[in-house]
Amino acid sequence: MQARIPAMPQSRLPMRYLLLAVLAIAALIVIGLAIGLVNSLLEFYERMANLPLLLRVPLIVVAAAAVLGLALLAWKLLRPGPGANRRSQKTEPLDREAIATRVAELRQREAEAESLEQELIELDRRRLSGDCHVAVFGEISTGKSSLVRALAADSVVDIDVVGGTTRWIRHYTGTLPDDRKLVITDMPGSGEVDGAQREQLARDEALRAHAVVYVVDSDLTRAQDAELRWLAGFGKPLILALNKIDRFGLDERISLLAALGERYAAVTRAIVAISAGGKENFQRKLADGSIERVVRERKPDVGSLRDALMEVTAAGAEALEPAREAAVLSSVDQRSRALARIVAARESETIVQRYTRRAVVGAMAAVAPGSDIIIQGALATAMVRELARIHEIPVRDIDVENLLKRLGLSIRNTTAIVLAIAGNALKAFPGLGTLGGGALHAIAYGLAFDSVGRAIAMTLAEHARLDADETERNIRDLLAKPSRDRIERVAGVVVDRLRRKD
């Protein structure tokens, strides 16, 4: 058996020397460049000083103009585009007046913004009332209503043993150990089958509250974890209440609370173990052998939750108001923006239909078989401007002209496709097949114009700017598979125009 000779350790000194040499060379190069730059500047200064004044001043002006021009060019190249500016403005938090103005504008545009207006009215009403609102939030059957009854013992709270029985928002008055009053809200539970509308009611009410008690009866599921962290993101006091603690043994209770504390101590103000009481069902065997179904009340134990509520609301409703208002305004802001997109899509549809009709009517007066279908002129320019105004996007004349020229070339290249679609339209509608080439080209022109309008509207809504590449792709998709209602609408305009001529 051969002896194994251990490898000799390699010295790391040569690598260190190599790195030191590289750094030294780099330092010398930098020093040399700096000396050369300073030397060049000094030579340039001496030469300028020796020049006559008549030559010195023009050279200084030319150099200053060149530097200024380079600075302007760099600013134009590096500044964000109009779409990026618009998106960055959207992410900035808006104040109460700005959001109220947007909601009022939506009402003027015949949008269904009544719920948003009521949300702002309720926001002001609660602020003026001075009451401190606490929302009891969580999934169905976790004991929320029983907990509300335990916290608001002087109020009448309807409890049912069937899960998910709370259908609407209910407010009750509770009293803390220091005799302060709280408005406690019982809400529909999340996670109920076909309960999306009630769940949204609960979420909205949780945002309106000054503090939230999130109720669970075991370790949190993935959905509950996401919901809890969503609530914590608004910065208002959040208490995690582990209910039905009497169902767990001592070791299991300690282990569960430790796990919850490790995961959620950073996002909650307190984690408490409680027993909300409520009704419990069990079966009892009688002496004669029969089985009796018994419903009885469990004694509540919510002292730790009362203490936590007393602590998180000690500063009063006025101190907690900024976080509550920010949560409500954030919700109204998101909902109003979504509604604005719906309204913009509806108004864009109306504009595209109106200008398509005008384009078809104008084309029938001059169209001839074999003429090119080119989207250009005052109608297209006006349509683009109106669509940009609806989407609140500023556009320049040169941008509109360049876009329409490019789209005109795109439409010209797909003329055969458009004409084929128009020919199919003539065959699909009895009586149109005998109208001749003029009707054919009018329908084709209308479909092309309609596609351009819809493609521009789609691009503005998605990218918040005039994107020629995206618009061309949208046009190709719209022309490749035109919907039947679009063909019928354009053909209807042609028929109506011909009837008026007759």
TrEMBL record:
Return the InterPro entries for the record: GTP-bd, P-loop_NTPase
Q: Tell me where the transmembrane regions lie.
A: 58-78
UniProt-listed Pfam families: MMR_HSR1
- Sorted UniProt keywords: Coiled coil, Membrane, Transmembrane, Transmembrane helix
Highest rank taxon of the organism: Bacteria
Q: Where is the G domain?
A: 133-244
* Signal peptide (residue range): none
Q: Gene3D superfamilies annotated for this entry?
A: P-loop containing nucleotide triphosphate hydrolases
Name one process (GO BP) from the record. tRNA methylation
Instruction: Using the record for this protein, list the coiled-coil segments as residue ranges, or answer none.
Output: 99-126
One Gene Ontology MF term: GTP binding
Q: Which SUPFAM superfamilies match?
A: P-loop containing nucleoside triphosphate hydrolases
Q: Which Gene Ontology cellular-component terms appear in the entry?
A: cytosol
This chain's protein is named: G domain-containing protein
